Amino acid sequence: MCIGRCSRFVGIILVFLALVSIAASTFLLFPNLTVTYLWRGLITRQAFQLPGLWGGGIMVLLAAIQIITAGSKINWFGCYGSCWHMFLSILLSVMALFGSVLCFAISAGGLLNGPLCLYNVLLPNRTKIQLWDYPFAGFDNMAFNNSVPNYLEDRSLWDSVCIEPSGVVVWNIHFFSILLVISTLEIFLSLIQIINGFFGCLCGLCDEKSVTSS
Predict the structure, then answer these.
(1) 135-193, pLDDT tens digit by residue?
(2) 106 in a domain, yes or no?
(3) Which DSSP letter does residue 55 get?
(4) Residues facing 129 on adjacent strands
(5) Would you identify the family this protein belongs to, as annotated (predicted)?
(6) In a domain, 150, yes or no
(7) What is the longest distance spanned by two Cα atoms in the chain?
(8) Where are the alpha helices (DSSP H) in 28-81?
(9) How far apart are the first and last CA of the chain?
(10) Number of domains in the chain
(11) DSSP letter at 139?
């Protein structure tokens, strides 16, 4: 595949992935499409950080637009020459790579720690109370000693531990998993464009040569 065509192909896919990432990150703020928990600030920490909006979304989207521009030989802002566009696409691809890595790391943390939810806690004196916290977090709370490890492997815990929001465990698992898959693809495509842009700076767009020769 020619360098220009490869850039256009990568850029178009990155645009799609960035838009899906923004949507998935937004849905994490509204468990079961309810705004009540967002108003009360009872949203999972990693979801509230919106990694798919700025990391896997906006940063990737800005890079994708420039990558498509470089591959299409569109001259903006008075900048001419495929080498300049390819060099700029490399810089923005590095930015997209950084944003995708952060999105992956934060989403992985949200998936491993589980959601913030209301659940029953058994105190040392056998008194049962309800608490808003992270019942699936990997560390043991010495005061309550109620953490539940490996919840991802035990589906029976998904609907039996969290009282509110209803179905938040499945909701978080689905959308954080989507963000993990998307950010992985974005990392891969960003690396491809960095390599592609490097050859574009050295050799130019090969479709330019084909047009010239014809």
Answers:
(1) 998 544 433 445 445 789 888 889 999 999 999 999 999 999 999 999 999 999 999 99
(2) yes
(3) I
(4) 121
(5) Belongs to the L6 tetraspanin family.
(6) no
(7) 86
(8) 36-39, 45-48, 51-53, 59-72
(9) 18
(10) 1
(11) S
Q: Is residue 30 part of a domain?
A: yes
| Distance, CA of 200 to CA of 4 (rounded, Å) | 8
User: At how many degrees (to 10) do helices 3-27 and 59-72 cross?
Assistant: 160
**Token pair belonging to 108:** 């992985």
Domain hosting 172: range is 3-115+166-213
Q: Identify any residues that bridge with 119 across adjacent strands, giving them in sequence order.
A: 131, 162
Residue 85 lies in a domain: yes
* 8-17, 28-37, 133-142, 189-198: the lowest-pLDDT one: 133-142
The amino acid present at 110, given as its one-letter code, is: G
Instruction: Render pLDDT for 101-135 as a digit per residue (tens, 0 to 9).
Output: 999 999 999 999 999 999 998 888 888 899 999 99
Pick 75 or 65 by higher pLDDT.
Answer: 65
Identify any residues that bridge with 25 across adjacent strands, giving them in sequence order. Answer: none
CA dihedral 193, 198, 204, 209 (to 10 degrees): -70
Strands across the sheet containing 162-164: 128-133, 117-122, 162-164
DSSP 128: E
pLDDT at position 214, please? 35
Sign of CA dihedral 127, 138, 180, 101: positive
